[in-house]
């Protein structure tokens, strides 16, 4: 079955960096766009970044442009989110997402907290 497992979250000071990873299994990873979302309590899940199947085209939310980079390694079935110059407002649970045959799949999420 489809599994998405995020890792790499944690506590970081403002201005710091983290790299999130999402290990995928149960489907042909290289055939699907992958996305990172984030969510804070009381708010809707927000699309952060998206990457196409080969990794050549990426899109970002305006709030993270120039600071975050999404990438993928199809040989390792893994998608990454490099987060630099982190701000307190980046604090959220970050989720990996794939839409396969019109069904949405999510990981369990990884907490990112940006605080001094």
SS element count, helices: 0
**What is the β-strand count?**
11
Helix content class: under 10%
Order of helices and strands: EEEEEEEEEEE
Net shape: globular
Mean pLDDT equals: 97
Describe what this molecule looks like in 3D:
- The chain has 116 residues and is mainly beta.
- The protein is 0% helix and 53% strand.
- The protein has no helices and 11 strands.
- The strands form 2 sheets. Strands 2, 4, 5, 6, 9, 10 and 11 form a 7-stranded mixed sheet that branches. Strands 1-3-8-7 form a 4-stranded antiparallel sheet, with no helix packed on it.
- The N and C termini lie far apart (40 Å).
- The mean pLDDT is 97.
Q: What secondary-structure arrangement, pairings included, does this model have?
A:
Blueprint: E1 3-7, E2 10-12, E3 18-25, E4 34-39, E5 46-51, E6 58-60, E7 68-73, E8 78-83, E9 92-100, E10 103-106, E11 110-114
Parallel strand pairs: 2-11
Antiparallel strand pairs: 1-3, 3-8, 4-5, 4-9, 5-6, 7-8, 9-10, 9-11
Which key phrases capture this entry?
116 residues, mainly beta, 7-stranded mixed beta sheet, 4-stranded antiparallel beta sheet, 11 strands, 0% helix
How would you concisely characterize the structure shown here?
The chain has strands at residues 3-7, 10-12, 18-25, 34-39, 46-51, 58-60, 68-73, 78-83, 92-100, 103-106, 110-114.
